[in-house]
Amino acid sequence: MTASPDLTTFRLASPDLLRSVFRRHAAGVAVITARGAHGPVGFTATSLTSVSADPPMLSFGVSTGGSSWSAIAATDHVGVHILGEHQQELAATFARSGADRFGPATAWREGPHGVPLLDGVLAWVVARIVTRVPAGDHRVVLAEVALGDPAGQGRPLLYHQGRFTALRD
Predict the structure, then answer these.
(1) What domains sit in the chain, N to C, each tagged with a CATH number?
(2) What is the pLDDT of residues 116-166, one digit of tens each?
């Protein structure tokens, strides 16, 4: 039997409430990359969503206060990379403010449309940005998939309870 929600312990809406609720939501981990005016940029995202199969479209959220926003705001194409459970350090690097995200520890190459493509991921796509929708302190980016490769080996990296984790059998 399922218990009804406890209406005596609810909290009013706040950034902390939203973060607390979504810590309970397991999400896949992706890295979004783009060519910036001063070199490649990228960030870790758990907001990646499939939007449409025909045409193939996806979405992700990006903070307008983040270091990658100016490049995402100005570019036409992004790289979207699905990380494997073996890539926790890569996910942490792209999530850390001030990190050298494309330094010697990051294996990558320039792909179509100048998009930085990360090596060793489970899957990647290059997508053309269709629109950027204002959403509070973020923008929701809708992008149409142009090309990609789903052939990477391994199991996906997840984010749950504020940390990177893996699937359990």
Answers:
(1) 28-160 (2.30.110.10)
(2) 999 999 999 999 999 999 999 999 999 999 999 999 999 999 999 999 999
